[in-house]
Amino acid sequence: MDFIKLLGPDISVKILTHLDDPCDLVRVSAVSNSWQRFVIENGLCKQLCLKKFPEISGVAHIIEVDNMIEPVSTMLGSSMNWECLKRNHNVYAFLASGLSPSMRKNCISKAISASSTDNYPEESVLNTLEPWDRTHYRASYWSSKGERDPSVPETLIYTLISRICLVTEIHVQPFQAYFEHGLPIYSAKAVRFKMGHPRYPVELEGFVADKITANHVLGDNQFVWTYTSPEFPMFQENCLQQFKLPEPVLCIGGVLLVEMLGRVQQEEIDDLFYICISHVRVVGRPLSPAFDVKIHHPSGKCTLKYYPHTDSSMSSSSSSSKRDSRTALRLRLRPLTSSLMQRGV
To answer: What is the pLDDT of residue 335?
Structure first.
């Protein structure tokens, strides 16, 4: 009995949208030609992506590079529409499967800007990229300027290793001044995170990590923040504090802002409040090179580019210990690829 024909399209869509694994949707589309057409025409893989990761709602176009479907523009009428639907189904199926937080790595690429810096370059934001609080026999940390008002916030801005990353946790370590009396720890009261993209992409072109200066301060109005986390309390402890996001976040645009709210430690010399950070780490996984994005408009409208053949670039002689996230994603999606090919998608 075909329950899709029996129940009708509306009830069938409601049932199938309760599936939360893209592999299940691919299995549904492999049952029969009519089920395959139903899944594709109703964009169920896209709905699953949007449900799990609303950040991708800004995607305006789907481009599948170097595949059998291109160029879609040469087709006419319903044939062109069907090929577009199949192409979108392919891309969203791979994207939904690729958005698994199981693979973890540090996703920070560059330190871009700090809202203030006390002593440049000795206390530059670049120091927060290193996991140690001292290098070459000297302290390694970023320090804000001193403030009499402990409520004055500070921000650090980073770019990620890909313009499209799945972020699950952010780790921040306050700095303990081991050279000061009492070994004070210059933490913040709380921390909050924002992710997004530059309002105009050229704004980041001049910000090169090894040429950053004390004047490289980017304002909030130069970015479009598509995600803002809740506030997390920060403890006055000398350790890498882990802040797990309520849900994995798809960062489209590759920019992270760390916002430190409130100050807790005064310096004895000047009685001013400071915030000092020794290390920042972003835990997640990049979706490149299989996926990339191009921002078209300050509103966040963008093109999602899909490169289906990049995962085959690893040679067969590579050892399993050296396989990177691209190979792991390819192996994980092999059953998915086979199902798609068997159905002629």
So the answer is: 41
